[in-house]
Amino acid sequence: MPMVGVSNAFFSTAHDVLSGTKDGTQAVADLEDELARLKRRNW
User: Fold this and answer.
1) Roughly how many angstroms between the first and final C-alpha of the chain, as a whole number?
2) Which residues contact 31 (CB under 8 A, 6 or more apart)?
3) Tens-digit pLDDT profile for residues 21-43
């Protein structure tokens, strides 16, 4: 199931940027943090 988390993180980031909820810089920084968290949990 971990890949669902990674896929969901990418989808949510893209959605946030395209919908104007977040700017690209902040969204990528947040994505990096989320991917690091997921990786610590072995994806």
Assistant:
1) 8
2) 9, 10, 13
3) 999 999 999 999 999 999 998 86
Length of the chain: 43
DSSP string for residues in the chain: -HHHHHHHHHHHHHHHHHTTSS-HHHHHHHHHHHHHHHHHTT-
The total of other beta-carbon atoms located within 10 Å of residue 18's CB is 11
> Which pLDDT does position 1 carry in this prediction?
41
Of 4, 12, 14, which Cα lies nearest the Cα of 43?
4
CA distances from 16 to 41, 42, 43 (A): 24, 25, 22
